[in-house]
Write a structure and sequence with these properties.
The structure holds two protein chains of two kinds. By secondary structure, chain A is an alpha+beta fold. Helices cover 55% and strands 16% of the residues of chain A. Chain A has 30 helices and 24 strands. In chain A, strands 1, 2, 3, 4, 5, 6, 7, 8, 9, 10, 11, 12 and 13 form a 13-stranded mixed beta sheet that branches. In chain A, a hairpin with a 2-residue loop joins strand 4 and strand 5. In chain A, helix 5 runs antiparallel to helix 26, helix 18 crosses helix 28 and helix 18 crosses helix 29. Chain A is globular and about 115 Å long. Chain B has a two-stranded antiparallel ribbon with strand order 1-2. The termini of chain B are far apart. By secondary structure, chain B is α+β, with helices and mostly antiparallel strands. Chain B has a single domain, classed as Orthogonal Bundle (Arc Repressor Mutant, subunit A). The chains are: A alpha+beta, B alpha+beta. At the A-B interface, helix 3 and helix 4 of A face helix 2, helix 3 and strand 2 of B.
């Protein structure tokens, strides 16, 4: 006779076993096999097998209903207990929910910001096929990269290469003056382009169409916001705006460009209106328009890039050979353009911080839940005695932490919505919390809840489910070093993170302070700057301003330091084969004394020497070094030439100045050529006394209008505008300070929980000590000692890590502060004090408690 | 009076009849004898669970460690409440049918 095990359909039996509750499983399986055996004897094996399968399949729905019914009973009970516990331990629940909520809110905010940064330009259809054509020119002695390309390059790509689906050139005007109803406005985002732009980029037309957009000369498309600004609710089509003195007729209105694109525009007009000379349009060396191409779907970008690398030499080889230049092209994927301009390292650091803060919050939950486990221990004991399986308990407690995490999530969403405006200004991006509820993010949010719930619930669940029923009734749970070790490890972790963040914040701010107070090589205090239209009459205008007693100095220039320069190809006459890119700025003769710039050789410009204006120049030490002269004296008398080779482009060097930071402190000082060309003075800088500043400013305002110095009066203080350069660093600093305070807050919450636990655990010990004559301060010290050790250890771990990261960050700066030991000591001390303050309430409460109360029970 | 389903009624009667030998297999046999409509084993156990919940039956698990390959059987027996319920059902049906059995009426075979 065959053994019965061989004959029962294994799979069916397995399915059946899964569908039945534990307590009934064995009997039901036995019943099934008994009937099965009878059927074999009566009708044979095949029939029995059919019966078994059909019975299992038919019974599935009912078995499932049954099992769900029993589960539901249990879940109802679990939920009831969970809500009861949340209500009963209000303080604990509050700490848990608010801690986790704050952690989650941080994580969500950082997620929104980072994903916004990574989403740039991805909304264009076929964004992966769009590239910006970038160029790199080797001038023999020096190589420069440009994100722009030249006009003939793009037209060649469009016409001669079948791989290119469409190509477009874009030029932008940095600032235009618009006159509308006799009011003048400065506007930005004015671009010149071609019709292909609408094939490459997603630009949605609200009025008009891409086909008719550029039908006429001087036709223009404007963005929705611009249309509303100038025409309100009227239909702008057919109306015109006066731009830089020319009337442009509006032929279309397009949707505003989204915030996450690097290509921002308010006005779009045809390239024809840009008035570039025909030579400019065919000159390969004129790298001044942005070029975008869209490749055909099956083209491999790498191969195509290789193919067009030396395209300029194919078409314009003679010229470049004669110049000795090498001209190469490369393709920059559209999606990567924005990420080049942001500090991607910073995004990674920020993401790490977000994740760490979430982990900190979870650690809090873990340490707090295990600390107050004594509240639940009896429940666990009873449940186990009645027959709960460890797995059931694990499920129950993870379920509870999921419930807490859902509450925390709701709280965090409220926080996110409330803090969004603040966070937007913190990051300098227009972020909206509504984007969070986009379909793509729902999965992220759900997994955030699950992740938080499971990370924070897993250990407490395991811990509680392993409790021995006998011990729980005895109240002798929390002995043993292992468990307190784990909680201490959490505290060390939390404080390590907090201390690293504190050190980071202090370092960022020291660096910013250092940069702001660093002597730039010139006086930047008390200088009022504004642009002015001199009409070759700058001396008289300066004198007009100097009439005021509080204006003690005036100087005219192309642009004050930090406000612009001309980068030009430069040669030394006599060594024409070498080309250099140098910055040229025009200043009048008052600039060097006025800004207290030191001369190292030669003489400054003089008003009385006629040749100084137009024929001489002064260079800085960096230029001396770049051009390979041994000493500043050697440079005197040499002749520099810029741009085309013409006698009027030559300047004799009459002096050398000490390097001064005319750009900002992040960058090393680049070679500079100062010249004295009155026709290229566009700005004026006035030195004013500190008394009666507002009166002086209103005088300047009045004079400016009196002398008709331009369209729009817009003044600034030089030192303030210089501080603008540190905006991105200040932003990093502010973000650091925000998240550091949050991390500290969370660590303190965790610490509070730990000390609560310790003092509770040692109630009796403290009572006995007090009876035997211990003092309050002695007991407070005893309780704080553990904590002190934790924070000390955290310091030791945090210091080298912080040093490493901050040193790497500081490498980005040309001028940087030294990382002093004080920053580290101070941060450590700060963390220590905060920790002590947090626990002092609990320890003092424990120490001052009446020993009678603590010893009475039992 | 609690309404119980026909299947539950059949099961209760089967358990009553079987007395000490009422477990899954025997109940199934007994009930399917008197209950013409086919039902699955799942339905049987589901109904048994429902009856348990209503306190009409109690169960008693017996394990056979040596004989029958270490099987286990769950024996069911009626509680007083279950018996009362069955009697109530019986009385109810009787009252429903009162007088009708004396009437002479034909059930025509339609086929």
């Amino acid at each position: 006779m065959r053994k019965k095990k061989d004959t029962i359909p294994g799979l069916a039996a397995w399915i059946l076993a899964r569908m039945i509750r534990d307590e009934d499983r064995l009997s039901i399986l036995s019943d099934f096999s008994e009937t099965y055996e009878e059927l074999i004897n009566e009708k044979g094996h095949l029939e029995a097998c059919r019966w078994y399968w059909s019975q299992v399949l038919k019974s599935l729905p009912l078995f499932m209903t049954n099992i769900l019914y029993w589960r539901l009973v249990m879940i109802k009970n679990y939920l009831k207990i969970a809500f009861r516990n949340i209500k009963r331990h209000k303080g604990c629940s509050f700490i848990n929910i608010s801690g986790l909520g704050v952690g989650m809110a941080c994580f969500i905010l950082i997620y929104i910001y980072v994903s916004h940064e990574f989403s740039y330009d991805k909304f264009h259809s076929d964004a992966d096929r769009i590239y910006r054509v970038e160029t790199r020119v080797n001038y023999g002695s020096q190589e420069l990269s440009f994100s722009s390309s030249c006009d003939p390059l793009i037209s060649t790509l469009r016409e001669k290469y079948p791989e290119v689906a469409s190509a477009v050139r874009i030029r932008s005007s940095r600032r235009v003056v618009i006159e509308h109803n006799n009011v003048r406005f400065y506007e930005s985002g004015f671009i010149y382009t071609e019709e292909d732009m609408f094939n490459i980029f997603n630009i949605q037309f609200l009025k008009g169409s891409p086909e008719t957009a550029f039908n006429h000369l001087n036709s223009m498309i404007i963005s929705k916001d611009t249309a509303t600004k100038y025409f309100g609710n009227d239909n702008p089509i057919g109306k015109s705006l006066n731009i830089n003195g020319n009337d442009f007729k509006i032929t279309g209105v397009v949707q505003n460009p989204p915030t996450n694109t690097h290509l921002q525009y308010n006005f779009i007009t045809s390239m024809i209106n840009s008035r570039i000379s025909p030579e400019g349009m065919t000159n390969w060396a004129n790298v001044s328009s942005l070029g975008y191409i869209k490749l055909k779907p099956d083209v491999i970008a790498k191969e195509f890039e290789e193919k067009i690398k030396f395209i300029a030499h194919e078409y314009e080889g003679e010229y470049f050979k004669k110049q000795g230049w090498t001209y190469t092209c490369s393709l920059q994927p559209l999606i990567g353009i924005h990420l080049q301009s942001v500090n991607i390292q910073f995004l990674y650091i920020l993401s790490t911080i977000g994740f760490l803060i979430l982990i900190l919050a979870c650690l809090n939950f873990i340490s707090l839940s295990t600390s107050v486990a004594s509240n639940r221990a009896k429940e666990v004991g009873i449940r186990k005695t009645v027959g709960a399986q460890p797995m059931q308990l694990v499920k129950q407690f993870i379920g509870e932490s999921l419930l807490i995490s859902i509450f925390a999530f709701i709280f965090s969403i409220l926080l996110v919505i409330m803090t969004m405006p603040f966070f937007s200004s913190l990051t300098g991006r227009e972020l909206r919390s509504i984007d969070l509820f986009h379909l793509n993010n729902i999965i992220f949010l759900i997994s955030l809840i699950l992740l938080t719930g499971i990370i924070s619930g897993f250990y407490p669940a395991l811990f509680l489910s392993k409790l021995k029923p006998v011990l729980t009734i005895n109240n002798r749970l929390f002995t043993g070093k292992r468990k307190s070790f784990l909680r201490k490890a959490f505290i060390v972790c939390q404080f390590t993170v907090s201390i690293i963040l504190i050190i980071g914040t202090i370092s960022v701010y020291t660096q910013i302070d250092f940069m702001k107070n660093q002597y730039l090589g010139f006086e930047k205090e008390q200088k009022v700057i504004f642009s002015a239209d001199f009409n070759n009459n700058y001396k008289a205008i300066k004198d007009e301003f100097l009439k005021h007693p509080n204006i003690i100095g005036a100087t005219a220039c192309y642009a004050p330091p930090g406000h612009g320069y001309n980068n030009r190809t430069t040669r030394v006459v006599g060594k024409e084969e070498e080309n250099w890119a140098m910055n040229w700025i025009s200043f009048d003769h008052d600039f060097i004394p006025e800004y207290k710039i030191q001369m190292t050789a030669g003489r400054p410009f003089s008003e009385n020497i006629i040749t100084d204006a137009g024929e001489s120049c002064i260079i800085n030490e960096a230029a001396v070094k770049t051009l390979g002269w041994k000493s500043p004296e050697e440079a005197i008398g040499k002749i520099l030439e810029r741009g085309p080779r013409k006698p009027e482009n030559r300047r004799t060097i009459i002096g050398v100045v000490k390097d001064f930071h005319y750009t900002g402190l992040q960058d090393p000082v680049e070679p500079l050529v100062m010249l004295n060309d009155p026709q290229s003075f566009y700005s004026i800088s006035l030195t004013i006394k500190t008394e009666n500043v507002s009166e002086t400013l209103s005088f300047i305002d009045r004079k400016w209008h009196e002398l008709h110095l331009g369209d729009i009066y817009n003044y600034a203080f030089l030192d303030e505008s210089f501080n603008r350069y540190y905006r991105s660093e200040e932003r990093i600093g502010r973000i650091f300070i925000t998240f550091t305070s949050l991390a500290i807050f969370l660590s303190c919450l965790g610490l509070f929980g730990l000390v609560y636990f310790i003092s509770k655990q040692r109630t009796k010990e403290i009572g006995i000590r007090k009876v035997l004559g211990a003092s309050v301060s002695g007991i407070t010290g005893l309780l704080s000692r553990d904590l002190a050790r934790c924070v000390l250890l955290a310091n030791i771990i945090a210091w080298p890590m912080a040093y490493y990261f901050i040193n790497r960050w500081l490498q980005n700066f040309a001028c940087r502060t030294d990382l002093s030991v004080w920053i580290f000591l101070l941060s450590g001390l700060a963390a220590f004090c905060i920790a002590l303050l947090t626990v002092s309430y609990q320890t003092i409460k424990a120490a001052t408690a009446n020993p009678v109360d603590s010893l009475r029970y039992e | 009076m609690n309404i119980i389903t026909r299947l539950e009624e059949a099961i209760l009667i089967a358990i009553w009849r079987l007395e000490d030998n009422a477990y899954g297999v025997t109940i199934n046999k007994q009930a399917s004898k008197s209950f013409k409509k086919k039902y699955s084993m799942g339905a049987l156990y589901f109904a048994l669970d429902q009856l348990l919940r209503k306190d009409y039956v109690t169960k008693n698990v017996k394990r056979f460690y040596h004989e029958k390959g270490g099987r286990s059987r769950t024996y069911y027996s009626l509680t007083n409440k279950g018996k009362k319920a069955l009697l109530e059902v019986k009385a109810y049906q009787k009252s429903l049918w009162e007088g009708i059995s004396e009437l002479a009426f034909d059930v025509k075979d339609s086929k």
